[in-house]
Amino acid sequence: MILIDALYINNGGGKVLLDYLVKKLEKKYDNVFYIFDSRCSNDFQYVPEHRKVYMKASLVKRYQFYKNNNNKFGIFLCFGNLPPLIKLNLPVFTYFHNRLLINIPKHTVLKNFIMLKLKSLFLKIIVKNTDYVIVQSDIIKQEFLKEIRFEENKILPYPFYEPLNYPNTNKIKNRFIYVSSGEEYKNHKRLLQAFKKAYDLTKSISLVVTIDSSYIKLYEEINILINKGYPIENLGFVSKEKLCLEYAKAEFTIYPSITESFGISIIEAIEGGCKVIGANLPYMHAVCKPSLLFDPLNIDSIENAILTAMNNTLPNTEQKIFNKIDDIISLLT
């Protein structure tokens, strides 16, 4: 029996990856048991009840589950960045996809910095409980090795993502899209300021974002700009079908995030035919050769990139990372 431990995964890119992994496994295997975060209790209804448990995100509850049930399984995949809290005598893989735990951005607010630092220290303590760490790129592998003592040949760069089906539609000239959640490091505030300045100059651009109402301040800031007449469309939480349509319509994806472990929406946008206007940071260069780069900490640089994209024919973006979901599944089966 395989255990997929997805505690702590309930939103964002990690949840997107988890959805895809579970669907792939359920199509072919009936010997997989899942620990799902209780915040996902309305999801994964297609998984039989006897092969899943929804659990509150708690170290104590997770420890108790492993202590009481570890002898029921032959292989483990910890999908929530953290290895088991106890050492097991069976193969354990940990899928690490939270770059913030090994590379905290300099401008992180103090409260978040302290929390991330504590989580990072905890990871260093329990990393001995995993046999292998799976990461999403060679850059994350090297950063992991700099921060955490682990055998290099046991860190496996296996990126994966769900391929999407894009409709045939015409691109809308000077339409930019940024598919992302609303955390501070996603850098929406600088993007919005740069977009506002660029629009005031040109009156001929539009922006699509995906911020739901749980990000209260950012959501309100976007609504204020919309009410002032700026052509911003906020999709909020959106279906995959709608998302594919929006990628297909946009001419560019603009990606100002300060840090990413992967940047799944960059890949989605490329495969949807968008040119990437991206932050000049290592994660971006790991995923693709962008059509245009900017300094994500400089509003004027972001604005200039928007204006350059509008007024010039940019080269197509070159994708560097491709789906390795089958390689991951082969490790487990």
TrEMBL record:
- One GO molecular-function entry: glycosyltransferase activity
Q: Which GO terms of type biological process are on file? A: lipopolysaccharide biosynthetic process
Which protein are we looking at?
Glycosyl transferase family 1 domain-containing protein
InterPro entries assigned to the protein according to its UniProt record, in alphabetical order: Glyco_trans_1
Which Pfam family is one of this chain's hits? Glycos_transf_1
Can you give the residue ranges of the Glycosyl transferase family domain?
A: 170-316
**Annotated keywords:** Transferase
What PANTHER family does the record point to?
GLYCOSYLTRANSFERASE WBBK-RELATED
Extract the signal peptide range: none
Transferase found in the keyword field: yes
Q: Which SUPFAM superfamilies match?
A: UDP-Glycosyltransferase/glycogen phosphorylase
Q: Which domain of life is it from?
A: Bacteria
